[in-house]
């Protein structure tokens, strides 16, 4: 009986660990790409848009709003004790 319980608990932990690990990897990837896009937007797009507006381009009538980077930490999963 103990072997069966231990085998089931190991399987359960491995299966769920893979799911959460995959989700965590995806979240880190998404946040990193978002932050990279914000950096590019701030360093390349906004200066170009301001120059075009100064040159009289009427397509930039409104100010371009600032985007914020995401600085969230992924919560670790605590071990079952």
Percent range of helical residues:
55-70%
Q: What's the gyration radius in Å?
A: 24 Å
Largest sheet: none
Mean pLDDT score: 80
Order of helices and strands: H
Beta strands, count: 0
Beta-strand level of the residues, as a percent range?
under 5%
Structural class computed from helices and strand pairing: mainly alpha
Number of contiguous helices: 1
Description:
- The chain is mostly helical.
- It is built from one helix and no strands.
- It has one helix spanning 2-54.
- The protein is rod-shaped and about 80 Å long.
Quick synopsis:
The chain is mainly α and 81 residues long.
Keywords:
81 residues, mainly alpha, 1 helix, 65% helix, rod-shaped
SSE diagram, text form:
Elements: H1 2-54
């Amino acid at each position: 009986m103990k072997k069966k319980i231990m085998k089931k608990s190991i399987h359960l932990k491995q299966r769920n660990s893979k799911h959460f690990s995959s989700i965590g990897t995806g979240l880190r990837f998404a946040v990193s790409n978002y932050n990279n896009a914000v950096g590019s937007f701030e360093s390349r797009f906004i200066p170009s848009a301001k120059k075009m507006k100064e040159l009289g381009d009427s397509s930039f009538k409104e100010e371009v709003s600032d985007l914020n980077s995401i600085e969230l930490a992924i919560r670790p999963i605590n071990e079952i004790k």
